[in-house]
């Protein structure tokens, strides 16, 4: 029955796409062919498929049996979400889930605000500001609609609209399984970095938290390079750009308690 409720929205999106109207661009003039409702609907389908895949592997940490871990993680996520800087804070559902894989240091976001973070990434990080910074980066990818636009570039608008109509379920499996390896443009990465700083500026965290992660990642190098960097390329100026934005906003160097973060690392 839900497919029928999607159709008017899909037709509106398709009409906008074919008509080439102003609704096809965001506030910066970048093309966005999906409506916000389509973002939410696609994200819901991709998240459901992702949940199913990792649940079948026994790797999805369920909230019902990991309540304390999610209480601690939600505490970080909600500070970022409630920074007052998100475009779609009230439109997207914004949930976060942990994938139990200590060997993978990665995180990714679906369209519509479903965030996934691997236990390996949480354990790799050194403090709560770094966790907030990386989560802020992923939240920015969803809130700035980078994920939708990148999927649109890679698969085409007709394929994505078809998924929302329940067509080609094997394509949905492919998209969901590949989301953690989705490669964004340098412009998208730069914007996500900048917004991570902007979000954290309105919290108690040191707003250059993401830079600390990248510095540690680059120092390791070689075979130990985190999975996150294979999909989030790190040009030489990236850490400097984050730090420059933090200096501009005068929000770096803040000290916060890491007791909750250390507990989270122990129990996942």
How many β-strand runs? Answer: 4
Helix content: 55-70%
How does the overall form come out from the CA principal axes?
globular
SSE order in H/E notation?
HHEHEEEHHHHHHHHHH
List the domain count as a whole number: 1
Number of helices: 13
What class do helices, strands and sheet pairing give?
A: mainly alpha
Mean pLDDT: 86
Major beta sheet summary:
4 strands, mixed
In the sheet with the most strands, the strands line up as: 1-2-4-3
> Could you tell me the strand content as a percent range?
5-15%
Question: Which stretches are poorly predicted, pLDDT < 50 over at least 5 residues?
Answer: 1-23
Work out the radius of gyration: 18 Å
Distance between the first and last residues' Cα: 38 Å
Structural notes for this entry:
The chain is mostly helical. 59% of the residues lie in helices and 6% in strands. It has 13 helices and four strands. A four-stranded mixed β-sheet has the order 1-2-4-3. Helix 2 (36-56) packs across helix 7 (157-164), helix 3 crosses helix 5 and helix 10 (209-220) runs antiparallel to helix 12 (238-249).
Set out the fold topology:
Layout lengths: L1 H18 L16 H21 L3 E2 L5 H15 L13 E5 L7 E3 L4 E5 H6 L3 H16 L2 H10 L1 H8 L4 H10 L7 H16 L7 H12 L6 H5 L6 H12 L9 H9 L1
Parallel strand pairs: 2-4
Antiparallel strand pairs: 1-2, 3-4
Helix pairs in contact: 1-7, 2-7, 2-8, 3-5, 3-13, 5-9, 5-10, 6-7, 9-12, 10-12
